[in-house]
Amino acid sequence: MAYSIDIDPDARDQIRALPSDGVAAFAEAMTVLSLVPKRGEPLNADNPEGGMYHLPFGDGRGLITYLLLTDQDQVHVLLVTWVSFE
After folding, report:
1. Could you write out the three-class secondary structure of 57-76?
2. 70 contacts: CB under 8 Å, gap ≥ 6
3. Which of 78, 75, 80, 74 is nearest to 23 (CA)?
4. How far is residue 22's CA from residue 26's CA, in Å, rounded to a whole number?
5. How far is Cα 75 from Cα 86, in angstroms, rounded to an integer?
6. Which of 6, 16, 53, 75 has the fewest Cβ atoms nearer than 10 Å?
7. Which residues contact 85 (CB under 8 A, 6 or more apart)?
8. Over the chain, what is the mean pLDDT?
9. How far from 25 is each of 21, 47, 65, 78, CA to CA, in Å?
10. Is residue 86 scored above 70 in pLDDT?
């Protein structure tokens, strides 16, 4: 079963700003989120069932923060962060 993915408008802007190697890594991470979204780690370790997760991508240079609604089979991408070492 695949989860539907909704991307917040601010996250879309962050995705557009990714470098080319970040775009490829992000695409791979989105495949993971659509198939096994619980692969990410809970954002709050004290509330692991709270629905908020983050998933590192791109050899740890990127981080996707998302809301998982398992009862609706939906993933809402809220924030995409990329660290540049320039």
Report:
1. ECCCCEEEEEEEEHHHCEEE
2. 51
3. 80
4. 6
5. 32
6. 16
7. 61
8. 94
9. 6, 28, 15, 17
10. no
Task: Give the pLDDT score at 1.
Answer: 72
For 29, 45, 53, 73, 77, the CA distances from 19, given in Å and listed in that order, are: 15, 31, 23, 30, 19
Q: Is the pTM here over 0.90, yes or no?
A: yes
Smallest CA-to-CA distance from 7 within 29, 25, 36 is with 29
Tell which residue, 8, 60, 65, has the closest CA to residue 42: 65
Put residue 18 in one of left, alpha, beta given phi > 0 → left and psi -120 to 50 → alpha. beta
- Is residue 65 within 8 Å of 44, Cβ to Cβ? no
